[in-house]
Specification:
The chain has two domains: 44 residues, no CATH class; 116 residues, L,D-transpeptidase catalytic domain-like. The protein is 20% helix and 23% strand. The protein is built from four helices and nine strands. The chain is of the alpha+beta class.
Length: 218
């Protein structure tokens, strides 16, 4: 009997100091004891275990914008407006340039090459229409004046060298004896020939033919 009482007390102690799972198993064993040996029901119950409440998650407080700053908003750009067409508006067509007629030069419409000595300019013409020019020229210096008048192309020499002045005269087109159109300085006057730029001299050489009329006006 004394041993049973001691066992009951031991089991009761285990109820009080054990974990909840072990405590349940020990309590069942005590219930199986005879009634006189069972410990008080309060002992079986043991101290109540009170669990602290679980913390409730809270959102972090929003950081306010600094004063004077406007909250940024993302707005998709809208379509660009299409300019409205003006009713009845018709685009003006691009017209080709109108060739100048011989009236734009001081020469007759029958001339194929025109030289204006006073203006230091020259043109090419065909059928009374200007086809090239005006282009700048230089001509005869004092004592070697380029003679005015109406002449015809006599000959053409691409790489002519003057036998009198031992000077190169590229793209020469002779129209009055030794007087010719040719490539030469536009800053220096000549011994009577008409100086042209390299590009103009090539154009005169390729355009003019023997027999074409060259008119030189003062």
């Amino acid at each position: 009997m004394v041993a049973l009482v001691a066992a009951g007390g031991l089991l009761a102690g285990m109820v009080i100091g054990s974990t909840p799972g072990a405590r349940t198993a020990v309590a069942r064993a005590l219930v199986a004891l005879p009634a006189p040996l069972r410990p008080d029901a309060g002992v079986l119950a043991g101290p109540a275990v009170v669990l602290p409440p679980a913390p409730i998650p809270t959102e972090a407080p929003a950081t306010p914008d600094p004063p004077g700053r406007t909250p940024a908003t993302s707005a998709a750009p809208g379509p660009r407006p299409t300019p409205a067409a003006t009713p009845g508006a018709t685009p003006s067509p691009t017209l080709p340039p109108t060739p100048q007629d011989a009236a734009a030069t001081p020469c007759a419409p029958t001339a194929t090459a025109c030289v204006d000595l006073s203006a230091n300019r020259s043109w090419l013409l065909r059928d009374g229409q200007v086809t090239y020019g005006p282009v700048p020229i230089t001509h005869g210096r004092a004592g070697f004046r380029t003679p005015p008048g109406t002449f015809r192309v006599e000959s053409k020499r691409r790489d002519h060298v003057s036998s009198i002045y031992d000077a190169e005269m590229p793209w020469s087109v002779f129209f009055n004896g030794g007087v010719a159109f040719h490539e030469g300085s536009l800053a220096v006057t000549s011994h009577g020939c008409v100086h042209l730029s390299p590009a103009a001299a090539k154009t005169y050489f390729s355009t003019l033919s023997v027999g074409d009329i060259v008119q030189v006006v003062p």
